[in-house]
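Second attempt. The first submission of non-specific serine/threonine protein kinase had a stray character pasted in from the spreadsheet, which I only caught after the job came back as garbage. Lesson logged: always re-copy from the clean sequence file. Corrected sequence (328 aa) follows.
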Amino acid sequence: MSSNDLLSAKRNNGETNIEWIKRMIEDEQICSIDHSEFGDPVHVRYGGSGVVTRAQWKKRNKEIILKQIVPYESALAKSENQELAKELKAFHSIKDSLTSEIGRNNVIEFLGVSINKGNFFLVLEYADLGNLRDYLMLNKTLDWERRINIVRQVTCGLYFLHKNEILHRDLHIGNVVIKSDKNSKFDIKVLITDFGVSKVITRQSVSSQAIKGCITFMDPFILNALTATYGEKYNYPSDIYSLGMTMYAISNDKLLADENIPVIELVKKINGIRENPMADSTQSYVDLYTKCMDDDPNNRPTIEYVYDSIHKEEIISGKKWGETIQSQ
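This time the job returned cleanly.
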């Protein structure tokens, strides 16, 4: 089967999650890595999409990330089945795509799967400099060109996902990681991670007065829809809104907490006024992320438009936003 067949790979009646995974391995949709090949595990974090551990892949002498997704004993719901299939499909698209394809190197590399003591793990490449939120906190003196370099790489990663018909649905500065890379500009490679298996916001989470995920980066249109209907309306413009918020955070050092937020705070967010941009931002940059965060999803640009715009020289060297304000 091709990677595109993953989305049509339905569970058999009574098939548990682990049985589904094993069948995907048998069908050569995903490769299995013996868990005994990993050593020196170090807990990284707990997250909405599972437990994350760093380990040494002894056979290849490299550090990797083990991301626990699905408990062994529970059965996958239909929606969870599809979400797992989407992530695996995305990883296959990365593996099968040409090295020169835009954004291929800005999405986390999938190395395989591993099963240990009834737990299922994705085996992913390790980003030694941590997530973007932590990186920005430790590097608050980054100049404008270095910040734009980060934004451009994030945009490339999202471009790749959208071109492969994959929605991220939870893009924020905690789901972007940084890796040392002497072959990349400014010696870093920026990678998008945690796509596909990001949990759908449920009716239960709304009714319990809290919604999981990084709400600040979420499309207000989605929040309004969720509050009204407990449903979901994620689409490409929703990802574009999150990209705009990510652009805003990178340029402003406005590192927003990734935590559960009470519904009353969501109302303030939905109805609130966005803060002014930093004076050092270029006008073209402010205009771009403002378009991405338009209240009407239909007015937001496509990822192709954002990609073309963010790579223009005026984004770095154009008129400053502060200069524009002062001249008025």
